[in-house]
Amino acid sequence: MNRFFSGIFVVTTLLLAPACSSTNKSTEAQVSPSSMMNHDGHSMEHTNHGNNSQINTQTKLTPPNNLAPNQGMNLVIDIQDDTGKPVNKFDIFQEKIMHLIVVSDDLRNFDHIHPEYKENGRFEVTANFPESGNYTLFSDYKPAGSKENVSLMNITIPGTVPLPKNLEKFSKTKTISDTNVNLNISEKNIKAGQSVTLSFDLKDQKNQPIKDLQSYLGEKGHLVIIKSSSPLTTSDYIHAHAMKDPANGKVEFHTKFPKSGTYKMWMQFNRNGQIKTADFWVNVE
């Protein structure tokens, strides 16, 4: 039977960088403690300015009054310190001030967008939610002089929720318009906590390695991995960075999967000025 939603529910959760104490707060709803975010590839070792002190922050999501699927909606995200004052200075990382990952809770829908900073701790962005149902937003930002923070926000788009579909096949080959993407994994069986190399081979329609990859967010590719969980938490989120100087038509990532389970991966790359996304499921023992 189809389910119906009428209204919104918004929760914000903060994840602080390793070795730092945190105070989780929300101006929208009660917040539960977060687990450690997985940010392999650079393992959270980003270059920070100043004394690298940690700033405790709270995040407020303000959606429009009328929510509907499959139409652009303006979202406002306010970043505040733990006293409620706006955090007004941020460092740029991966060419942006904020990266916002939007996924439906069944992981069928994915978007990677970049809110525009409006000063005084406020970011604005237009997001599109393709279907009714529950969505999780992972907001990735870096207060100036502080380590990288990831917050989690939830929103429900009202309407009839589509019936669940069977899990997509664990295919290692995808065709994205004019590009064939093949996934190769360094280990036959992926084990939780074990380092693994994920190699994506990109070939043209003649099955030749492509040579016209362009930079995307300062790298050859971008990879987001999210564990299939209910509810989604920051511990289910992995943001991996591409390895340097790959061979033609190859984009590689080195990462770890923290827990056993089923994960979905979205690898994004830039070809001919267009950002393309290839998604794959993997199972972790």
Topology as H/E string? EEEEEEEEEEEEEEEEEEEE
Oligomer: single chain
Largest sheet: 5 strands, antiparallel
Please state the overall shape, judged from the principal axes of the Cα atoms.
globular
Spatial gap, N to C terminus: 33 Å
Report the mean per-residue pLDDT as an integer. Answer: 82
Amount of helix: under 10%
Number of helical segments? 0
Based on secondary structure, the structural category is mainly beta
In terms of topology, how is this protein built?
Layout: E1 4-5, E2 11-15, E3 57-62, E4 72-81, E5 98-104, E6 110-113, E7 116-117, E8 122-128, E9 133-141, E10 149-157, E11 159-160, E12 173-176, E13 179-185, E14 195-203, E15 213-214, E16 222-227, E17 237-241, E18 250-256, E19 261-271, E20 274-284
Antiparallel strand pairs: 1-11, 2-10, 3-4, 4-8, 5-6, 5-9, 7-8, 9-10, 12-13, 13-14, 14-18, 15-19, 16-17, 16-19, 19-20
Would you mind describing this structure in some detail?
The structure is a single chain. The protein is an all-beta fold and 285 residues long. The protein has no helices and 20 strands. It starts with a strand and ends with a strand.
Brief account:
The chain is an all-beta fold and 285 residues long. It has no helices and 20 strands. It has strands at residues 4-5, 11-15, 57-62, 72-81, 98-104, 110-113, 116-117, 122-128, 133-141, 149-157, 159-160, 173-176, 179-185, 195-203, 213-214, 222-227, 237-241, 250-256, 261-271, 274-284.
